[in-house]
Specification:
The chain is an alpha+beta fold. 18% of the residues lie in helices and 26% in strands. Strand 6 and strand 7 form a beta hairpin. It is globular. It is built from six helices and nine strands, in the order E-H-E-E-H-E-E-H-E-E-H-H-E-H-E. The strands form four sheets. A three-stranded mixed sheet has the order 8-1-9.
């Protein structure tokens, strides 16, 4: 099963992952995996910038947020448009994703409504590229190696130290975070 691994210590906030995702999906139709992403409003991968402290003592944290490709996806309980592939990627079938209720099912707010196409959309993990033996665009573009993707078994040593977002939700996300920032005084 595939996972994403994000390392806070390596991310310099270049926003390359966010731009690469837009470049891959805006005006590109990857049917049956995904229809084109709108140019504005959707961030299937969004880099959040969080500023801690006050000038002159400031620390900036960057966190990549994308579909968590959960083992227990809440969106799948709401809609039959959601399915989990054998490799672990959670896909929102663009021919069936016509109900807005799936947006509220995601506790990570990673599902968007495409007003023009009247469908729900989200990160596909670039399944169309994975099927060709390539990496997701966000991972391929990351200049620092902060965002990685691969077989869970290849990251076993690092996963001992990794965390997930909101583990108390029981969704069992497949996006892991390393070197989470600690309290900054």
């Amino acid at each position: 099963m595939k996972i994403f691994l994000f390392d806070f210590a390596k991310c310099n906030g270049c926003y390359g992952c966010q731009l690469a995702c837009k470049d891959e999906h805006v005006d590109n139709d990857w049917f049956p995996i995904a229809r084109p992403q709108p140019e504005l409003g959707h961030f299937w991968l969004k880099l959040h910038e969080i500023v801690h402290g006050q000038v002159p003592k400031v620390k900036v944290e960057y966190r990549a947020i994308l579909c968590m490709h959960c083992d227990e996806p809440p969106c799948a309980q709401i809609s039959d448009a959601v399915y989990k592939r054998a490799d672990g990627l959670v896909i929102l079938d663009p021919t069936k994703a016509t109900d807005k209720s799936v947006l509220d099912a995601c506790p990570y707010h990673a599902i968007y409504w495409n007003e023009e196409l009247k469908i729900a959309q989200k990160c596909t993990g670039c399944a169309h590229l994975i099927d060709q033996g390539e990496q997701p665009r966000c991972v391929d573009f990351c200049p620092t190696g902060a965002l990685r993707f691969g077989e869970e078994s290849d990251f076993i040593a690092e996963l001992v130290e990794a965390e997930t977002l909101q583990p108390e939700l029981g969704t069992k996300p497949r996006v892991y975070y390393l070197n989470s920032p600690k309290l900054f005084l």
